[in-house]
Amino acid sequence: MIENLILGAGISGLAANYALKSKGLLSAIVEKDADYGGLCGSFEINGFRFDRFVHLCFTKSDIVNDIFGQASNNILSHKPEAYNVYKGMWIKHPAQNNLFPLSEEEKKLIINDFLNRKSPDTSNIKNYEDWLRIQFGDYFAEHFPMVYTRKYWMKEARELRTEWVGQRIYQPSVEEVIKGSKTADTPNTYYAKEMRYPRKGGYKQFLKVLAESADIRYNKEVNEIEPLLKKISFSDGTSVEYNRLISSLPLTEMVKLVKNTPDDVKAAADKLECTCGYHVSIALKTMNIPPYLWWYIYDEDNLASRVYSPSLKSPDNAPEGCSSLQMEVYCKQGEFTEEVIKDRTVGKLIERGFIKEEDIMFIHLGFEKYANVIFTEPIYEARKIVRDYLALVGIETIGRFGEWDYLWSDQSLLSGLKIK
Question: What is the CB-side half-sphere exposure of residue 246 using CA atoms within 13 A?
Fold first, then answer.
């Protein structure tokens, strides 16, 4: 019998264990992989270290900073100076108030639309596309965020709700838009002022203190949960009984694992959507790469939505004299062949002159089944039905996919720490 059993050794599962231990309560974590970290984990190939998608810390939470600081006493600080690629041009981020590199014709179209925007009457906003057109005008909305939405969210903007936006998208004044069209000398308006990253060990290093204090049982994939018996069976043929169950697994997986889940709960889970996709990791035998920590790609001929440099996050992520990039492609598994993905990501960087083919040491493709929650119309009602049912049968849900919310890594950690 395990008193407190936690499913998943990602950041929220580790945090839940940490919270329980701080109260003197014993717990164990079962993890289907051979290592901890989940999406905050990393992998190494020939001296190159890559995170599973881009991760940087910009939390303002004292408790998160304390935990991360205990795990890594050597933390690098970066200014969040991101850029965008549009028609092969580099545009400072966010693009809406940094239009300077564009042609005079495009600037005029964007500014005129911006000046002639409809009154921001929230009652007229039915979806994310409406929100974008009201905030930025038609031309900018259609050529920038609506394009990016298709690449990053795997949806058209009109299919998304708006509650997730928050402070994530900067809404400039008319004066800022006009000034940014005339000069490249504009202030940084990114929502975070500092990005932090461990000098050694990758982003996963931040979780070291959480993991060291945990009883993690690896290679334990859940096969079935019987809440009435408080018993879990694993794919390796073993089983365990528990008194309390805390899950960071995706809600869509949980309804399949829990025995005798009602049909209406399964139907609600079927309405929950998320992105999945590939990280395309590139090792280079040169340090001659774009100098930007991360950048967004608006050009639709390139499948990647974002690119970042692990070696710029920390030089320890690559051998001396080398560098690295990682690109994010959101699509269904098998939608493109590996060759097509490489050609329309790495190949596009070569085509634009951002890197040279002869400098590439290797390319690695990794697939993640769960990346981000998608805020389609049914999300709130559907996730409530699923979470309420799981709570009814004694299963507490935490983390990005347990709460089914757009949680950053620090928010996922805090989600786990809320366990009492």
Answer: 28
Q: Is 68 left (phi over 0), alpha (psi -120 to 50) or beta?
A: alpha
Q: What is the pLDDT of residues 292-312, one digit of tens each?
A: 999 999 999 999 999 999 999
Tell me what the mean pLDDT of segment 224-236 comes to. Answer: 97
**Phi and psi (nearest 5°) for 106?**
-70, -40
Specify whether the CB–CB gap between 67 and 75 falls below 8 A. Answer: no
Percent of the chain with pLDDT over 90: 94
Contact of 168 with 189, CB cutoff 8 Å: no
Q: Look at residue 122 in the predicted model and tell me its pLDDT.
A: 64
Tokens found for residue 414: 């805090």
Query: Which distant-in-sequence residues (6+ apart) come within 8 Å of 144 by Cβ?
Result: 86, 95, 96, 136, 298
Alpha-carbon gap, residue 18 to 128, rounded angstroms:
38
Q: Give strand pairing partners of 75.
A: 198
| pLDDT digit string, tens, across residues 1-31 | 999 999 999 999 999 999 999 999 999 999 9
* Phi, psi for residue 307 in degrees, rounded to 5: -135, 140
Please, which residues have CB within 8 angstroms of residue 55's CB and are 6 or more apart in sequence? 40, 197, 203, 409
**What is the C-alpha separation between 159 and 217, in angstroms, rounded?**
40
Please list, residue by residue across 381-392, b when 16 or more beta carbons sit within 10 angstroms of its beta carbon and e when fewer do: ebbebbbebbee
CA distance 204 to 201: 7
Other C-beta atoms lying within 10 Å of the C-beta of residue 118: 10
Under a CB-based contact definition with an 8 Å cutoff, are residues 56 and 78 in contact? yes
Quick check: bond before 310 cis, omega within 30? no
Residues listed for the chain = 420
Residue 63 tokens, joined = 């408790």
| Residue 327 to residue 302: CA distance in whole angstroms | 10
H/E element, 245 = strand 239-247
Residue 249 structure tokens: 């697994």
